[in-house]
Specification:
- The chain is an alpha/beta fold and about 750 residues long.
- It folds into three domains: about 425 residues, Amino acid/polyamine transporter I (Up-down Bundle), CATH 1.20.1740; about 140 residues, Rossmann fold (3-Layer(aba) Sandwich), CATH 3.40.50.620; about 140 residues, Rossmann fold (3-Layer(aba) Sandwich), CATH 3.40.50.620.
- About 55% of the residues lie in helices and about 10% in strands.
- The protein has 27 helices and twelve strands.
- Strands 1, 2, 3, 4, 5, 6, 7, 8, 9, 10, 11 and 12 form a twelve-stranded mixed β-sheet that branches.
- Helix 13 crosses helix 14 and helix 25 packs parallel to helix 26.
- GO terms for molecular function: transmembrane transporter activity.
- It holds the Pfam family AA_permease_2.
- InterPro entries: AA/rel_permease1, APC_superfamily, Rossmann-like_a/b/a_fold, UspA.
- One of its GO terms (cellular component) is plasma membrane.
- It is a multi-pass membrane protein.
Length: about 750
């Protein structure tokens, strides 16, 4: 076939996370339970100078964020630090970091949930003792394990609400508390000296783990070269400043010795600055923060296990995905079980909460030290697949990784001997796992050998041309959708060959990493491949250039939008079943965001007949009527016929006004704007008292009806006008709703959000 180019692409992950979403995941997670629990422990360790401990921890985290930003944009694979270390340094160090991150996240989750119990027990007089704290912590953990086991699409939105609520409470707490600071409470500023400040830095570092979540989901972030480094660095800097101010206010309001004896330090400060109402708000925010932070840790832990399984460092049994819920249920249950044992240890170990925090910090400090080493190795090896959109500036390289290693190891040396012993035990566990299991497996080789020499990277360039994006999901209608897209594409043939991009999106819950779904949802992935293979076969028959994209994403509508933007599409054509499932949506949760935000033409097709056949367009006064007329003309070519442009007018009492003449003039205007030449269409005007019912009856004689969507100020009313609605509901043929390129003005809020998401 002359000019035919049919190609397919491997499965890909949807880039749905913009600046706002990534910033929420990183900074929002760090503004978690630690801000309510750590001030007391930190004040006990370093007094008012604990603010410096947070500042130093923030600097260490910032160095790690800079290195991870380059690695995440160059190797956007699930697993974060573990993946980069395993790829650069090999499976020996990969085993150490993998086990270290997994256990570190479990220690962190246990730390958060004991804090959850403390803030619930302290304000209630009849609840007392470690038993109640542990019991409530276990109950909270059981709830989170259940959520992550079954999976809910709403969990991400709920997480954002929780983070926003707790952040608002903290900002109010600081705004009021700053006026109650007594400078005499800040003396002596560093009662434990420099060693106490550094030792406390190791304890509080646990609260800076959230930024790596951005690296873990790097393959899902829009404009990664800008958004990943920007959000990682900005989140660390902003959270560091917030924690420094929290410590200054807390130790300035309540003497550090009293603060160190408190299990609910921020609540004790709120008693002085905000009264009973403030205490209630702080307790509520602390509970929310503990749930939010622990939930994030469980999510991240499951992804680390998946990444290890992908590299053959973990048995697939633990890495399996639930057949119904599509969540990593075994990894979630294993993480929950071990975390529960750590929480239960609180019955025996009075200082368990500080111990949990420090061990988690130890694990991640080791991981980040190895990350800094990895970036040096990867830069030296320069593998073909490594093409970072963000690189550490030449003035800062290699000083950033060098300083990162020195500071990370320096903090570890100042930790409590018990913490160092447990941390070394976790490292030993990783070594033992490597010796007993990993080294006998077929795993990827490290880049250590190639680090001495560098190799150039390869590049590729996309093609240009009129592009139609066609989401396909139903095997029964996909061929007809592609036929409609093909005739539309052929109409716009010019210097560059037009192209159809057929996409299929598999939706996964937030608890499951997108790549994990690709690896383990074999049945659905195979169905997706078959669907797109059928599309490629149809393209051969239709004599059209076709490219296919298999995508895994969390929100189908937003994923389609991201493809439309990436492809710079001129037209997106979607199938529709013609039913509204929820009152909150017009066409449905998939189509609504595309119709509202796609910058190109949009056609929504409800196919009721096997043939497109004869076509008619409603040539009314709406701004999208010309696009409906153009679509009807394109579809008429399939049956080698002319489209009919239909206009309805009501009788007039004015003898100087001829309704039929008005209708003909409107049809001519619509046709001219649509680019239809005279004689290429049939015009028909009906003059009736009841316009809507007459149009519905009249279009029954046609196989396909095209109508423009109505322009309503409220999107919930965009139901393409009452006439078209009745046509769709009552007509027995195909109905195509058409919208022209997006021209509606965005609100200030929408414009800001959209700009930040670029």
């Amino acid at each position: 076939m002359e000019g035919e180019t049919v190609s397919g692409e491997d499965g890909e992950l949807a880039r749905n996370l913009g600046f706002t979403e990534a910033m929420t995941m990183g900074g929002g997670t760090m503004i978690g339970a630690g801000i309510f629990i750590l001030p007391g422990i930190a004040a006990e360790g370093a007094g008012p100078a604990s603010s410096l401990s947070f500042a130093i921890a923030g600097i260490v985290a910032l160095l790690a964020a800079i290195s991870l930003s380059e690695l995440a944009t160059g190797m956007p694979i699930a697993g974060g630090s573990y993946h980069y270390v395993n790829r650069a340094l090999g499976s020996f160090f990969g085993s150490i970091v993998g086990w270290g991150m997994w256990t570190g996240l479990m220690f962190a989750s246990a730390f958060y949930m004991i804090g959850f119990g403390q803030y619930l027990v302290e304000p209630v007089p009849f609840l007392d003792g470690r038993g109640f704290v542990v019991l409530l912590g276990l109950l909270g953990l059981a709830f989170l394990v259940g959520v992550n086991y079954y999976g809910t699409e709403e969990s991400s939105a709920f997480q954002n609400i929780m983070i926003g609520s707790e952040t608002a409470v903290i900002l109010v707490f600081l705004a009021i508390g700053i006026f109650y600071v007594d400078t005499t409470n800040l003396e002596p500023f560093a009662p434990t000296g420099p060693s106490g400040i550094i030792a406390t830095t190791g304890l509080v570092f646990v609260t800076f783990l959230g930024f790596e979540i951005i690296a873990t989901v790097a393959e899902e972030v829009k404009n990664p070269g800008r958004n990943i480094p920007l959000t990682m660095i900005l989140s660390v800097v902003s959270v560091t400043l917030l924690y420094v101010v929290v410590m200054i206010v807390s130790t300035g309001v309540v003497p550090y010795a009293d603060l160190g004896d408190s299990l609910v330090p921020v609540s004790d400060v709120a008693v002085v600055t905000m009264g009973t109402a403030g205490v209630v708000a702080i307790v509520a925010a602390a509970v929310i923060a503990a749930i939010s932070s622990s939930n994030s840790s469980i999510l991240a832990a499951a992804r680390v296990v998946f990444a290890m399984g992908r590299d053959n460092l973990m048995n697939d049994w633990l890495n399996a995905t639930h057949s119904r819920f599509r969540t990593p249920h075994r990894a979630v249950m294993a993480t929950g079980a071990i975390t529960a044992m750590l929480i239960a240890a609180g019955l025996q170990v009075e200082e368990i909460i500080a111990l949990l925090a420090e061990v988690a910090s130890f694990s991640f400090l080791i991981s980040y030290a190895l990350v800094h080493v990895s970036i040096v190795v990867i830069r030296r090896a320069n593998p073909d697949a490594y093409e970072p959109d963000f690189e550490i500036p030449s003035l800062l390289y290699p000083w950033v990784p060098i300083a990162g290693v020195i500071l990370s190891l320096g903090i570890i040396t100042q930790m409590d001997p018990v913490v160092i012993a447990i941390g070394c035990g976790v490292v030993a566990l990783g070594v033992a796992w490597y010796i007993g299991y990993v080294r006998h497996r077929d795993v990827d080789e490290s880049l250590m050998g190639e680090a001495i020499v560098g190799e150039p990277a390869s590049t590729g360039e996309p093609s240009e041309g009129y592009t139609v994006v066609v989401p396909v999901a139903n095997p029964e209608t996909q061929r007809d959708l592609l036929r409609l897209a093909a005739v539309n594409a052929h109409t716009h043939a010019g210097e560059a060959e037009p192209e159809i991009v057929a996409i299929n999106v598999i939706q996964v819950p937030s608890q499951t990493s997108l790549e994990q779904n690709v690896q383990f949802e074999e049945e659905r992935i195979e169905a997706q491949r078959q669907l797109l293979e059928n599309a490629r076969e149809a393209a051969v028959d239709l004599n059209v250039n076709l490219r296919t994209r298999a995508i895994v994403g969390r929100d189908i509508g937003r994923t389609i939008l991201s493809v439309v933007e990436e492809e710079a599409a001129d037209h997106v054509l979607l199938g529709w079943r013609g039913k509204r499932r929820k009152r909150d949506f017009v066409f449905g949760s998939t189509i609504d965001p595309v119709l509202k935000r796609a910058p190109c033409e949009v056609s929504i097709v409800d196919l009721e007949k096997d043939l497109i056949g004869s076509s008619v367009a409603l040539a009314g006064p709406g701004p999208h009527a010309p696009f409906a007329a153009r679509r009807a003309a394109e579809f008429a070519k399939l049956s080698d016929s002319k489209p009919t442009l239909l206009n309805a007018q009501q009788p007039s009492d004015d003898p100087d006004i001829d309704p039929a003449e008005l209708g003909e003039q409107m049809i001519d205007d619509v046709a001219a704007e649509a680019g239809l030449e005279a004689g290429s269409y049939e015009s028909e005007v009906i003059v009736v008292d009841e316009v809507q019912s007459a149009i519905v009856d009249h279009v029954e004689t046609y196989d396909t009806v095209c109508a423009g969507v109505s322009e309503k100020s409220d999107f919930s009313k965009i139901l393409y006008g009452s006439i078209a609605e009745n046509v769709q509901q009552q007509a027995g043929g195909n109905v195509v709703m058409v919208r022209g390129p997006y021209k509606t003005n965005r609100s200030v809020r929408e414009a800001l959000v959209e700009r930040l998401a670029d």
